[in-house]
Amino acid sequence: MEYIRVTKDNIETEHICCALSNNNDIQVCSKKEWMKSCFDDGLVFIKSEKRGKCFIEYIPAEDAWIPIEADEYMYIDCFWVSGALKGHGYSNDLLNQCIQDAKSQGKIGLCILSSKKKKPFLSDPKYLSKKGFRVADESDCGINLMYLPFDENNSIPKFKTQAKNPHIEEKGFVLYYTNQCPFNAKYVPILEKIAQENNISFKTVHIHTKQQAQQAPTPCTTYALFYDGKWITNDQQNEKKFLKLIEEVRWRQGDLHRRNGNSRNRQRLFTKNDWLALPTEINQYFTKNVYFS
User: How large is the angle between the packed helices 280-289 and 239-253, nearest 10 degrees?
Assistant: First the structure.
């Protein structure tokens, strides 16, 4: 397998794996503009020559768009191999290139976001553990910071306080996001429209700079959805997912099920299968924190 390093010189002609449309597509355009803004900070994007999701993206931790303290580490922004490209050793190839690059720059190790159990858009903790990564720090929302030190005496990276204990003051839905993930350019406006049509309180906080990202109240700045001040998920919501989430919020608050004014006979409009289809962290959050009116 041959690999291509995307740079300022070839970014207009190379695809970026997670968004395969042309440069006129809003998702591709937003991602590439974000990459261009980060190249001078040392951003590296290496991908398979084959068309598909097979790439690694990393940057010196001091310039990473994430609230961590990890001086002299290399931070892996995104590491994704999927579909027909899985199972051929390409993940190992990409990780080894990152390790070699980090060592050549005098870095003392790698760090990356993961979780106790596999979460969407985060690297698999089982794979990372097999490659020698360890948990450096844990956040209250289940996202972990893992690290691979090149020497046992190296310092251990950690979350900043606001990332370790994610919480905000605003009520309703609040979404923090960056343009690192191309899907946001398409789906965030869709969620805003859905929220408006359903009279749902929904605020977006678009993070435009690394300085803003490094002070954000979440361990994952690419996408972090809060509800009534509490962190819910890092899983990008499409139209279907968000509509289900709104229905469940309303059902739990007593807005969507009423039958003859008798609360004991309220008719549930949100089915069991719909409930089970919600992302696990959202399911757990509403089970614990949102109650009937």
Answer: 10
The closest of 7, 69, 19, 5 to 180, measured between CA atoms, is: 19
Distance CA 61, CA 150 (A): 15
Structure tokens at 114: 């993961």
Residue 149, φ and ψ in degrees, nearest 5: -80, 145
Instruction: Report the C-alpha gap between 194 and 247 in whole angstroms.
Output: 12
CA dist 284 and 33 (Å) reads 36
For each of the chain's 293 residues, which pLDDT tens digit applies? 899 999 999 999 998 876 656 777 899 999 999 999 999 999 999 999 888 889 999 999 999 999 999 999 999 999 999 888 888 999 999 999 999 999 999 999 999 999 988 888 899 999 999 999 999 999 999 999 999 999 999 999 999 999 999 999 999 999 999 999 999 999 999 999 999 998 899 999 999 999 999 999 999 999 999 999 999 999 999 999 999 888 877 777 665 444 445 444 444 444 555 555 555 556 665 555 443 33
